[in-house]
Write a structure and sequence with these properties.
Low-confidence stretches: 110-117
Strand content: 15-25%
Distance between the termini: 30 Å
Order of helices and strands: EHEHEEEHEHEHHEEHHEHEHEHH
Structural class: alpha/beta
Largest sheet: 7 strands, mixed
CATH topology of the largest domain: Rossmann fold
Number of strands: 12
CATH class of the largest domain: Alpha Beta
CATH architecture of the largest domain: 3-Layer(aba) Sandwich
CATH superfamily of the largest domain: P-loop containing nucleotide triphosphate hydrolases
Length: 324
C-alpha cells in the first residue's frame, strides 16, 4: 500500500496506525512529495494507492498500481471511475475499513468464502437490555470489521438511535414479511444500511413483529446466510426472548450471554440458564461464553460519535474479549 498526502502530520499518523495494526498484514509506504511517489511507483508495484491530494494519475506508472482510492474532504463529490472517494476527516480505522471492504470485494476475497463453516453466526443475548450492552455490541461489531465483512442484525423490540450508524427505518419488519411469504436473500440486501465493512439490519414498526418469527423462519434464514456466504461474520443482538430466539441460540456457532456485574442481573441470568436447559440447550457447553460488563459513567448516555465509542470502556471490554 502507498499513501500520498502533502500534510506531514496526517500522513505520519496514518502510517503509524497501519504499522501498529500488525494483524492487517499491510506494508505501507508514505509520501508527502509528488516526485518521490512517482519515483517509487516507477520501481515498485502496489495493490492499493491512496491519494490525499489532487494529482494527475495519468503521470503515474499505472502498470504498477492495482487500485486507486482518493481521500476527499467532500464525501458527496462524484468519484472518478474506479477511484472511490473516501472521506478524509474520519479516523484512520474507518478510512482503512472502507478501503479494505472495497478492495476485498474487488478481489473476490469475500465472495470466495464458499465453505459453510467459514460463515460464523454469533448470537449476543442479554436478559435485560441497556445502553451498556448496545455499546458493547457496536464496539465488538466494529472491531470485527477490521478483519472481515460483518452483518449485524438488531432483534430489539424497542429500537433506539444507536452508533456508529444511526437508523430508524423499518427494514427488519419488511424483511420478516418477505421471510415468511417469499424468502429472497436479495431482498434482505436491499434493506441493509452500511458503514464500511459493517452491514446493519434493524428497525421494526412494532416490537411484536419479532414475536411472529418461528423456529422454521430462523432455520431458513440461517441456512441461506451460510449458503450464500456474503458475510464472514453474522452477529445477532437478541433483545427479546421467544421460541425463535431459543432456536437461533441453538443454531449459532457462538453465543455471548452479556450482563452487568450486579446481583439482580446475575440472578436473572441464572433463571435464563434454567429455562434454556429445560429447552434442551446446555448452557455449560464451550460455545456459550459469559461476558460481564462493568457499569461506567460513560454508559449513562450513548456516545455521540464513533470516536467517543472508541474511547469508552465498551470498546476496551470488546477488545479484551476478542483477545481471549
Amino acid at each position: 500500500m502507498a499513501l500520498y498526502n502533502s500534510d506531514l502530520l496526517y500522513t505520519t499518523r496514518f502510517m503509524e496506525y497501519v504499522n501498529k495494526k500488525k494483524e492487517l498484514n499491510i506494508r505501507i509506504s508514505a509520501f508527502t512529495k509528488e516526485e518521490s511517489l512517482k519515483e517509487y511507483l516507477h520501481n515498485n508495484s502496489v495493490d492499493i494507492l491512496v491519494l490525499g491530494d489532487e494529482i494527475l494519475t495519468e503521470e503515474l506508472s499505472h502498470h504498477n498500481i492495482k487500485y486507486i482510492y482518493r481521500l476527499s474532504d467532500n464525501p458527496q463529490k462524484e468519484a472518478v471511475m474506479d477511484q472511490p472517494q473516501i472521506f478524509k476527516y474520519q479516523s484512520a480505522m474507518m478510512v482503512m475499513k472502507e478501503i479494505l471492504s472495497d478492495y476485498m470485494e474487488k478481489e473476490g476475497k469475500v465472495k470466495a468464502v464458499s465453505n459453510l463453516s467459514q460463515v460464523r453466526i454469533t448470537s449476543i443475548f442479554t436478559p435485560i437490555s441497556g445502553a451498556e450492552k448496545l455499546n458493547f455490541v457496536w464496539a465488538l461489531s466494529s472491531l470485527m470489521t477490521q478483519h472481515s465483512k460483518v452483518l449485524l442484525v438488531i432483534l430489539e423490540p424497542f429500537p433506539v438511535v444507536m452508533l456508529p450508524h444511526s437508523t430508524n427505518n423499518q427494514g427488519l419488519t419488511e424483511f420478516i414479511y418477505y421471510l415468511k411469504e417469499n424468502f429472497n436473500i436479495e431482498k434482505m440486501r436491499s434493506l441493509l444500511t452500511q458503514s464500511g465493512s459493517l452491514y446493519i439490519l434493524s428497525g421494526v414498526i412494532h416490537g411484536a413483529d419479532l414475536l411472529s418469527l418461528s423456529r422454521e423462519d430462523i432455520q431458513k434464514w440461517l441456512e441461506e446466510l451460510r449458503k450464500t456466504a456474503d458475510y464472514q461474520n453474522v452477529i445477532f443482538y437478541l433483545g427479546c426472548y421467544s421460541e425463535a430466539i431459543i432456536e437461533l441460540i441453538n443454531l449459532s456457532d457462538r453465543v455471548l450471554a452479556v450482563s452487568l456485574s450486579n446481583t439482580f442481573e446475575t440472578a436473572v441470568l441464572k433463571e435464563w440458564e434454567k429455562q434454556m436447559n429445560r429447552s434442551g440447550v446446555d448452557t455449560a457447553q464451550e460455545r456459550i461464553r459469559y461476558v460481564r460488563l462493568q457499569r461506567q459513567s460513560d454508559f449513562e448516555a450513548m456516545p455521540n460519535t464513533l470516536q467517543e465509542l472508541m474511547n469508552s470502556s465498551s470498546w476496551t471490554e470488546a477488545e479484551q474479549y476478542l483477545n481471549l
